[in-house]
Each structure stands twice: as C-alpha cells, then as structure tokens.
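Let us work through a complete example step by step.
Step 1: write down the sequence.
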Amino acid sequence: MRLAVMLAALLSATLATGADGYGRAAFADPREPPAVAPLPAPARARAEFGRMLFNTQWVPAGTPRAARRDGLGPSFNTASCDACHNNGARARPPLNAGPAPVTLAVRLARTADSNGTGDAEYGRILSPQALDGYAAEGTLIIDFVERTGRFADGEPWRLREPSYRVTGTAAAELAPDTVIRPRLAPAVFGTGLLERIPEADIVAVAALQAARAGVAGVVARPAGADGIGRLGWQAAAVSLRAQTATALALEMGLSSHAEPADDCTAAQRACRAAPAGGTPEVSDGFLDALVEFQRALAVPLAVPADGMDARGAALFAAAACDGCHQPAQRAALDDGTIVEIRPYTDLLLHDLGDGLADRTVDGSVVPTRWRTAPLWGLGHAPRPASELALLHDGRARSVSEAILWHDGEARAARLAFEQLPAAERQLLARWVLAR
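Step 2: predict the structure and record it as tokens.
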C-alpha cells in the first residue's frame, strides 16, 4: 500500500482532490511543501487552526490584541514553530563557521545526566534571543576543521568537523563540565505514523539486535514518561504532544498544562519575574490544534529514477544499512487495522562513536546514543541542494558525508560503503534521498 493511501487511512479519510492544499496526502515533487491529508470536518478545522498557530509569531505578554498568542520569552530561540520547521521540513543548517543560526537549538546538560538536568545558570537550553529589557543568554560559535581521506578506489573525500563554544553569556560562564548539545530542528512530517508503531514491535527489534554481534539498539525510556521514547534525535519524547509542549516551553518560553515550567532557572531572577501571557500561555485547545496539524503532515515522496530503486535497495541491504534503518514498520490504526509503513528506522538508540558524540565545554567526549533517524522524505529540500543538512547538527552536506561520520555500531556499514565503486556509492546516495 502506498504511503499516501496509508496516511489517508490513518486519518480516517478518503482521498480527494482540492486546490486548498487538503485532499493530497503526499506530493511527488519533493520541492513542494508537505501536504495535509484529507480529514473529517472537525479534525480538518483543528488542523487548519494548527497550521495557523504553527506559523504564528508569538509576542510578549500583555501585547494588545494578541488574541491569546502572547507570553513569548523573555529569552527564546525563535518566535514561531515555522521559523525552525519551515513547512514542516528540516531547519536551515549552519552553512559556515561563525555564530550558529537560531534553528540550531543548543541544549545544555550535566555530564552525569546528559538527558536531564540542565546548566545551573542557563537551564536546559541556551537562548540566543531576548525581549527588549532582557538579556539573551549567549551565542553559540561554530568552528570547522577539515578532515580528509580516500575511498577504497582512491577517490578523495572531505568532511567538516565542527567544534562549539559559547560566547557573550549573560551572567556566569558555562561550567567546564556542562555538555553542549547542538540539535538541528528535524522535519516533523510523518511523526503521526511513528507514534502508531506498537511498543512491542520496537522492543522486539531491540531483543533481536541484542542476540547478534555488532548492532545493539537500546529502547529509549525517558525518565517520568509513560511509554517509550520514539521522537527526537535521542528519542526523548514519547509522543508528538510531549515533544511539542517541550519545544514550546524551552525554545519559546511558552507554558502549557503538558509542560507548565519554562526554562527560567533559580539564578535567573529577571526571567522568573517576567509577566506571563496566561496560565497556561498555550491553552489545551491550541496545543491540540498544533499536534493535529503536525500529525496530518504527510511524508513527501520523491520519485526514483527508472531502474534505480531495486539496485539502490540491494546496495543498502548489502552494506547492512538496514540493520538500523529498518525499511518497514507496522502502524496501528484507530480501528485496529495494521498497515505497513516504510520510515527506514528502528526507533532505537545506537552508539555511533566518538566522532558524533556530544562534548563538554572543556572538550571531553560524552558517550552519546542516537535514535536511528528516519530516512523517509529525506530528499524533501525546499532550499538549494547545497544547503542539505544531515545528522543532528547539520554537519553533513551530503548522504556520503553522513555515512562517513558513522562509527561505533555502524562502523561495518560505513566500511562497506567505502569499499563500493564510485558509481555504486553515488547510486546509493541518490536512492537514500529518494526514500
């Protein structure tokens, strides 16, 4: 069953055509924005309202005629969801050395708990912007060092290895053992389907991997969460609702019943004393609409060139890339029906080596596990191909670069890719972008 039809079924809808953006569950042209599948009238109204909220520029508390869309900040990353996830796609990457774009969120953590407690002064995220009268928390500066090597056939390759430092901190400097965790905003389309993969299926795959050498994915179990983690670069969110509420609170300073606390720390008295836009600032109805819109975003489908699909799939399997980027998963619909989807992920956490691991302020490597990133819709690029951004911090400018960064559990797959002739490497890279 084609993904377009599966998504329509998932949303209890029938395929139709329309000029308003609804009625098309996926686009063949990956340069177009992701479509919203056709929905029953009430859900369609919520999704349309959610689209508007997704694009809304939130404003400071107390702004006249704000229509309950106030409470931004006082320090923040961006003022709208769309600023990072334009049309539901991946964020604009850092193209050059220098100050990082606001679309690269800078998470902060303590070495002993890299997924929990943030920095004592600045909290769980470093906010590069602030409202008038308040101070931004700091600026992330990126430096790149070029790494070079050669494939087995002698063709040279180049990678850019980033390093990160924080300047212009509003108060105290970051502690030397604070972990800097740059995270490029990922695409949000298709998350509604990833939520529908049964927990038992994810756990079963982990058990199968544990029984063989080389690849051993770990099920993410976020502290205090009801369920297993499946969304985000490190599967820290159990659902799209949880992920959205956390992003609103940390990156925009907007509270909700799902995430009532923003990122103001005890040390940030001005932040804690700032006026609020309501209690909470994002109502349950607003949050429901935002989630409905994102769940309805279908995965853009790229059309492979003639004859490429079978050859690309064979190369992908021969290199054992499908050990983690598992092609097929099952999704459970509301009526109990099980359908097959093809996200190319096992939703498990894997160790990909020190090269991709987070580091502390003083440069120490922090062991880091990454959720297998879905490959579907990877070729959706509304920006020029030169701005392709892959991996958690956008360092990889091509599929080949992304593969070359793989180590640890993915080392064997990377070495197999390096051994391929140039024509097959290029074919495999094109095939991955066509998922």
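Step 3: interpret the result. The CA atoms of residues 46 and 277 lie 22 Å apart.
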